[in-house]
């Protein structure tokens, strides 16, 4: 019977351990799901920001523009209708008209009111590369708009960084505040017991209690600040954010710059080249076929129309070579303008790289500064903790008063707060450096 009872107890223990393990695993999974990473926030904010819709709008607009330009290769058809009244028309000389009348021919001459309804068809055969260059220009203009939109979207990441690390810092301060409240509560209980035994004054107990209530007030302020930051970050990202995860420390030695501003500058330079090709195409001759047809009066048979005032069908086909030399007048100035625009774009790249390099130096130096400060934060906390423990012991033996203990408790808490600030600020500087290079 004892053996059976022992076996049942052992089996029950195993089942309880499995149940506890499963429960802890579920709790860990729920915690992991509840926490949002910095990368998730940045991606969600970018997808939620209204400017994301500009990507599709710009692409579709560019597609329609290019398609319309390419339709220039299709036959260009125009319909016309006109009615005119002329002050004078072509007529037979008086002598010839008299001679015709003697021969029995009535030469009426052309009427002053004339009418025409017709269709003109023009088919481009060679345009000097005008349509191709205009289509390429439209594409580059679309790429510039897309690159500018990406620059605007990229700034959202910095706003996410600011809110994310502010929330992370508040969370850390809230944890430290809870530890401070617990520490003060423990000392408050000790003093309450000492007060009952008559080994401590009531004022000592009240001082610690007042300090604990002050920490409670600070916790209330931190909770309100935490709620505001959560709501702002949730609104910016478009998702419900309940908690944020501390991002890992990453390497910052990669100096390769992938900022979208540089891609915008490259797109502007390609646009400049496309504009130059458009100028080249404008000075080339153009060859086309045409066909004209109309129904009206007078037609192409002028003599017959002078004798018979009737409408007739008329048509003409042919080839046309045109060369507009007007763009040559302004070509040199246009080329100089494009050259100056290119220099401005290249200068803007130099300015951006200089300012960006200064930002990288600043963030890099800040990372080193916080790392050096963090090297001594743990030592300071250990020392402050030892001093606080010593003060608690001295208070218990009546060597110091409670104000000295409160001072040491606050000093230890301040050291822990400084450590959390240094760590969070170092992480922020690291990810601001990543933002500066888009790595």
Structure report:
By secondary structure, the chain is of the alpha+beta class. The protein folds into two domains: 36 residues; 312 residues, Outer membrane efflux proteins (OEP) (Up-down Bundle). A four-stranded antiparallel beta sheet has the order 2-3-5-6, with no helix packed on it. A two-stranded parallel ribbon has the order 1-4. It starts with a helix and ends with a helix. The N terminus is likely disordered.
Per DSSP, what share of the residues sits in E-state strands of 2 or more residues?
5-15%
Helical residue percent? Answer: over 70%
Which stretches are poorly predicted, pLDDT < 50 over at least 5 residues?
A: 1-33
Secondary-structure arrangement, i.e. CATH architecture of the largest domain: Up-down Bundle
What is the mean predicted local confidence, pLDDT?
Answer: 88
Distance between the termini: 69 Å
Largest sheet: 4 strands, antiparallel
**CATH fold name of the largest domain:** Outer membrane efflux proteins (OEP)
Count of discrete domains? 2
Question: Largest beta sheet: what is the strand line-up?
Answer: 2-3-5-6
Class of secondary structure makeup: alpha+beta
> What spatial form do the alpha-carbon principal axes imply?
rod-shaped
Count the beta strands: 6
Helix and strand succession? Answer: HEHHEHEHHEHEHEHH
């Amino acid at each position: 019977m004892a053996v059976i009872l022992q076996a049942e107890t052992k089996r029950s223990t195993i089942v309880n351990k499995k149940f506890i393990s499963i429960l802890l695993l579920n709790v860990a999974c729920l915690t992991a799901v509840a926490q949002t990473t910095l990368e998730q926030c940045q991606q969600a904010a970018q997808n939620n920001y209204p400017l994301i819709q500009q990507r599709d709008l710009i692409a579709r607009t560019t597609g329609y523009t290019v398609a319309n330009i390419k339709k220039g290769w299709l036959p260009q058809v125009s319909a016309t209708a006109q009615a005119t009244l002329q002050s004078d028309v072509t007529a037979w000389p008086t002598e010839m008209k008299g001679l015709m009348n003697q021969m029995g021919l009535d030469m009426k001459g052309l009427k002053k009111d004339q009418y025409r309804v017709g269709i003109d068809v023009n088919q481009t055969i060679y345009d000097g590369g005008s349509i191709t260059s205009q289509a390429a220009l439209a594409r580059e203009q679309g790429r510039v708009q897309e690159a500018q939109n990406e620059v605007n979207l990229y700034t959202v990441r910095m706003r996410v960084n600011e809110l994310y690390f502010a929330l992370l810092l508040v969370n850390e301060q809230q944890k430290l505040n809870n530890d401070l409240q617990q520490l003060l509560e423990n000392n408050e209980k000790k003093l309450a017991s000492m007060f009952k035994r008559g080994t401590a004054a009531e004022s000592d107990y009240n001082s610690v209690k007042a300090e604990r209530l002050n920490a409670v007030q600070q916790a209330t302020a931190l909770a309100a600040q935490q709620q505001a930051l959560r709501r702002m970050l949730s609104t910016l990202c478009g998702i419900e954010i309940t908690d944020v995860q501390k991002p890992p420390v990453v390497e910052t030695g990669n100096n390769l710059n992938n900022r979208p501003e540089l891609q915008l500058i490259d797109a502007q330079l390609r646009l400049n080249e496309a504009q130059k090709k458009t100028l080249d195409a404008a000075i080339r001759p153009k060859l086309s076929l045409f066909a004209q047809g109309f129904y009206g009066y007078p037609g192409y048979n002028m003599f017959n129309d002078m004798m018979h005032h009737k409408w007739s069908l008329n048509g003409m086909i042919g080839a046309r070579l045109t060369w507009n030399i007007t763009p040559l007048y302004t070509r040199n100035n246009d080329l100089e303008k494009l050259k100056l625009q290119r220099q401005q774009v290249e200068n803007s790249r130099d300015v951006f790289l200089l300012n960006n390099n200064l930002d990288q130096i600043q963030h890099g130096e800040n990372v080193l500064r916080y790392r050096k400060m963090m090297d001594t934060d743990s030592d300071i906390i250990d020392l402050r903790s030892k001093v606080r423990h010593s003060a608690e012991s001295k208070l218990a033996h009546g060597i110091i008063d409670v104000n000295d203990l409160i001072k040491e408790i606050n000093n230890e808490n301040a050291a822990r707060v400084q450590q959390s600030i240094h760590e969070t600020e170092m992480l922020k500087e690291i990810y601001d450096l990543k933002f500066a290079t888009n790595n």
